[in-house]
Amino acid sequence: MNKKAAIGGAIAVCAAGWLGATWYTGQQIETRSRQYLEKANAQLASLSPQLGGLSLRLEQLGYDRGWFSSQARYGFSVINAADSGDMPSGTMEFTTRIDHGPFPKGALARGVFLPKLAAMHTELVRTANLEELFKLFDGVVPLTSDDIVSYGGRVQGTARIAPVKAENEAMRLDFSGMQFDGSYDFKHEALTLDARIDALNVADHETDKPTKINVAGIRITAATRLGKFGLSTGESALMLKRFDMDMPEKQVKFVLEDLGYTATATENESALSMTADYQVGKVTVNETPVGSFRTAVHFDNLDGVALKQLVDVFKQVGQVLAQEGKGDQSAAEALMPVLSNHVFKLLAGKPTVRIDPLLWKTDKGESRLTAAVTLTRPEPFDMEHLDQTVARMIQSIDARWDLSQPMLKSVATQYGTQFEDQSPEEAAAKADEMVDGMLGMAQMMNAGKIEGDHFIGTFTYADGMGRLNGKEIPADELFKALASTAEDAADQMAGDDDVESAVAGAAETGEILTDFSPMILDFLAEQDQSPEAGDRENTYWLDPSSMGADSLLMTLYCNDESQCLDLMLTATYKSKRSVTLKEINAWSREYRWVRAYLNEQNQPVVEMDLNAAGGIGKENLAILYRTFVDIGADFANEVIGD
Predict the structure, then answer these.
(1) What are the angstrom distances between the C-alpha of 409 and each of 364, 416, 445?
(2) Which of 137, 268, 361, 375 could bridge to 366 as Cys pair (CB 3.0-4.6 Å)?
(3) Using alpha carbons only, what angle is made at residue 410 by residues 408 and 415, rounded to the nearest 5 degrees?
(4) Neighbours of 131 (CB within 10 A)
């Protein structure tokens, strides 16, 4: 055999091998495409509970296999739960050209020279139901993608949404387009994604002063994979470089810069941890900067098995409810005990929820909150005494807040000048008054203490005892107060008419007080006081021992119509030593809403006034009374001494 014949034979063998490999790969692609389609539909079906009964479906409408390439057609649809199995008329259709490996033409054109299963180019099809969409994009194909599939089952590619500019009588749209780069590994259910939008601008034309929304620098990223417990782990994020909204009719314009969130999930041998971190780098309202914001919520020590079981049952409940109209309620209710069981398993692992931090920062300072709550399984679980059950469910709480007075006053001043038409001097004066009053009331309620330019407070809870800035609060009292606060908040959701009716009804039953005199004796009895009538009318001597005072006098001040709208509490102290005005003044600087002074006999006195004009809640009155007693006890300890 001569040399030319040998070379020709080698070429023939290579060509035959190429043809055989290409034909065999084409068969593999057709088989795998059906497998991938089944997996994709299974994942889409899992989203149904979150879509209110709608389901997503992807189907292969046609497949024409050739020797070097194949043509496929797919349909993507959103289906109501009651729809038949036929593809609905609103289906979006896609056509895909599949170049067969081992060296697909589409991969070679992109500079990929290693053997690959296939290279695919996909386009949205111009069908009758998408005619208006294609007109919007001026005939350009709105959505295309190019992907390379490896033999191991990994798809890597790029997808594009075309730019569009459109305008009608109602609005104007300018969209820069969107590009997706990413990969998906079917074997490990691992996803990477990097999607970008340069700009999206929208303006309405329905008024002479149109509202405009401009968004720039949108980026979505993800790097996730299926974890050992069957839940996704990894990181995903959404970031916006800038968001502008201009509403001329309302004279409001605000700008948000560097805003977005990052979500992270990690796992160890037995548990998962998740973090959601939200931030806004800079907020500007009407050209005035109001600071930056950040909050991060952490979930730690989540039992992996219990959480996966809980997620699966949630999906079951959603699927049952979506089956027919409102769903099979009895079947869903039958799953509730199973759901509760998995919740208890999750709580048994003692999961922790942390906020660290909740941060508001300006050029004048920053205010910060941190908090951590550790949960545990309550034994027993009693729905009739929910406050006790909640108390048993919470193992510990640790919270701290730090508010910057200069920052709060600066923001309040800016609000006054921007939205209340106040001069800078007037706005600053009112801001000082408002913030001082708010923090003073908070200090009187033992919500914290003023330390320099900061208002700082702490709360801890463990072993059935809460401690607010060191003061003990038993669990039953704490959770009853929280339940009462929740009920009050729900009442505030009512309309104005409902609120007025509620206030009027409360006044009739004595819950809202507009006159102290009719109920003061009953109120004092509820505070474990047995008052004695004073020398003057509407005065009562009370037991001062709980606040370390020598005497405690309550005085009602009444008008000509015998309405007693004002009440004053006066605690007088005796001291073995001479208390100086310097000490009194130093203490007064730390405690607002009460006054301290030396009387004619040079005895220290602490007083507080209350007013019922417009109505005061009976529970609020009790809180203010107890706060006065607590502050008086602090005065005895810090000023009077032994």
Answers:
(1) 9, 10, 21
(2) 361
(3) 95
(4) 10
C-alpha R_g of the chain: 35
Handedness of CA 428, 430, 434, 436 (dihedral sign): positive
- Residue 190, token pair as written in the block: 């691992």
Window from 153-162, 235-244, 392-401, 576-585 with minimum mean pLDDT? 576-585
HSE of 624, CA atoms in CB hemisphere, 13 A: 21
610 closest CA partner among 593, 626, 597? 593
Place of tokens 């390379």: 148
Spatial separation of the C-alpha atoms in residues 354 and 244, rounded to whole Å: 32
DSSP state of 87: P
| HSE value, Cβ hemisphere, 13 Å, CA-based, for 167 | 6
Q: How far apart are CA 360 and CA 280, in angstroms?
A: 10
Residue 164 pLDDT = 93
User: What does the pLDDT look like over 321-363, one tens digit per residue?
Assistant: 655 555 555 666 666 777 777 788 888 889 999 999 999 999 9
Q: How far apart are CA 338 and CA 375, in angstroms?
A: 20
Range in 2-16, 17-31, 215-229 the model is least confident about: 2-16
What is the number of residues in the chain?
642
At position 168, the amino acid (one-letter code) is N
- 249-289 per-position pLDDT tens digit: 888 898 999 999 999 999 999 899 999 999 999 999 888 88
Side chain identity at residue 22, one-letter code: T
DSSP string, 354-423: EEEEEEEEETTEEEEEEEEEEE---SS--GGGHHHHHHHHEEEEEEEEEEEHHHHHHHHHHHHHHHS---
